[in-house]
Design goal:
- The chain is built from five helices and five strands.
- The chain is an alpha+beta fold.
- It has two domains: 53 residues, no CATH class; 135 residues, HIT family, subunit A.
- The protein has a five-stranded antiparallel beta sheet with strand order 1-2-3-5-4.
- Helix 3 crosses helix 5.
- It starts with a helix and ends with a helix.
- The chain binds zinc ion.
- Zinc ion (ZN) binds next to helix 2.
Length: 194
């Protein structure tokens, strides 16, 4: 049987230069794109790797499991899911809706799916209600680590460069907010989720 991903990769090959690089795309012209088009060099695309390397970590090496054990990072504990925050952030606030056990989104049942929907909605509203927040973006990357994490990122009001899907890229380049400010917002979010 034809492998659809192999067909996809074959088609893309015609779009790449001799070094395997695609041209810079239209996103580079977006008002919110963090880099100037001039001088941007896309990475070369390698061969497909199938089966993919196992990126999963055991619970003992999992950052989310470690965060769940820290009271200062846990914002809410539900039935099967919880809401935590990372130790620091450069944006206004970040909250992650995570499984309480070391499991993936793929592992949830219908009851847990419903809890996930409720918790994402409640966390979204809690972050949206923080003073100085212009918008809250919701994403799930997880990327094979093995622990469900839906990330909610709060953007500072009026900082238009940070709008949209490039927010994590901007956030990576900016300094962390003071810890006491972050902790105070965590208390507000914890209270809203109680
Ligand atoms: Zn884990």
């Amino acid at each position: 049987m034809t492998d659809p991903a192999d067909v996809w990769r074959g088609r893309v090959q015609d779009h790449l230069d001799a070094a395997g690089r695609p041209p810079v795309g239209g996103m580079a012209d977006w008002e919110v794109f963090p880099f100037e088009r001039e001088g941007l060099t896309p990475k070369a695309m390698g061969e497909r790797v199938v089966p993919e390397p196992d990126r999963s970590r055991g619970a003992d090496a999992c950052g989310t499991c470690k965060a769940l054990a820290r009271d200062d990072l846990v914002l809410h504990t539900g039935d099967r899911l919880a809401v935590i925050r990372p130790g620091g952030t450069s944006t206004m606030f970040v909250a992650n809706v995570v499984a309480r056990a070391h499991e993936r989104l793929d592992d949830l049942d219908e009851t847990a799916d419903e809890e996930l929907g409720r918790l994402v909605r409640r966390t979204y509203r809690a972050l949206r209600a923080l003073p100085g927040v212009g918008n809250v973006h919701v994403c799930k990357w997880e990327n094979g680590g093995g622990h469900l994490s839906v990330n909610l990122l709060a953007r500072p009001l009026g900082v238009l460069e940070l709008r949209g899907s490039n927010l994590p890229v901007w956030a990576d380049m900016l300094p962390d907010i003071p810890q006491d400010e972050y902790d105070a917002r965590a208390e507000a979010v914890r209270a809203a989720l109680a």
